[in-house]
Fold these 3 entries.
Entry 1:
Amino acid sequence: MNTKDEALRDVCQEALECLNKPGNANHDELKSKLEYVIGSYNYDKNPVGLYEIGNQALVVLEEISATKPRKVKKTLLKNLKESLLQEA
């Protein structure tokens, strides 16, 4: 098991929880993808989907944060960026 991949899984779970909050209902497809890749990672420990969908979630969360800063925690954005940078 890779701890950096598990950290990414955890922060993707946080992103999903943030997107599930009231007022963020426009992103049902992204939420479905996040749920799928988190479950997939838990099953096979292959993090490729987490990185791909995590990047999509980061873009959406940054857009939400730009218009409604109190909807997205700054630490969530920071942790997601850091986890995604460790891909290489």
Entry 2:
Amino acid sequence: MMATTPQTTRIIGSDGFELHPADETAMRKEMAHYEQPQAACIEALKIVQRRYGWVPDGAIGAIARVLGIGPAAVEGVATFYSLIFRQPVGRHVVLVCDSSSCFLTGFDELKQALVSQLGIDYGQTTEDARFTLLPVCCLGACDGAPALMIDDDTYGPVSPDDLPGLLEGYP
């Protein structure tokens, strides 16, 4: 018999998560676009993330039930994609591109300026829960390197001097 600890209770208890009815409807609508329901997995995760800001543990099983696949398959997709957040994040997520192009054109200075201005490092969220700072391997904005993304907005080239004005636009 498994001993009950706070962590196992959270994982086992996560089966009680209930999808918002509109989210389940949206997932089923998305599934209709594919021959295989699991093809809608990324979109299903994004639907939950739009509602909560991240994908809670219990949502994995709920999504799996809607899609008719195992929770391990959903978890595998959720942990593979860097834009699916498996823990709470700030109201705005700042992704700093560290691809070769960005690295060669000022990534270090940009990252250090963000760390200094926000008072956090990668993987952390500001005390006011306004920003979470994360690395990303490529934003596909090599012509605008160094680049960063705040929520769904891509900026580049960005210099440290540009940061106060950019961040101000995200209350």
Entry 3:
Amino acid sequence: MSETTRLHIDIYLATSELIKQRVSQLSREQLEWKPAPEKWSIKEIIAHLVDASFVHAVRIRKIVAENGNEFLLYDQDAWVASSRANQSELNDILLAFDAILAYNALFYGRLTDEQWERKGNNNGKEISIADLFQGFIRHVQTHLLQIGRNLDALGVK
């Protein structure tokens, strides 16, 4: 594995620590509070990242193994609603996130340069594994901002 790939994988794995740092001092009430009935609580946001990690794992493996098939699509709001994440312990959700990240990191570490550039089809747009990888990191950042908005609405600094 190249030094650049190792660095990128470290950044990928660090997304979990960023989430943990952001939510470590929050109460159960703060973690489960929703800004509106149709909006997600912080626990639901993190559970969504677990779901997104599952889907991400399937997508990258389908590109490598099946050479560019259509991406698995899903209704994220329906997945979050059906997960009942607010009835789960935050630590259990975070453990699942860590496990999937670790397993995907192992897979990423075994990819060849050619495989990083392989593409899959996402609603008519070709996306490479490298793009998916960077997109996942950006996705976590987007949801960290969402967590911040929830906390701002609660008046938590």
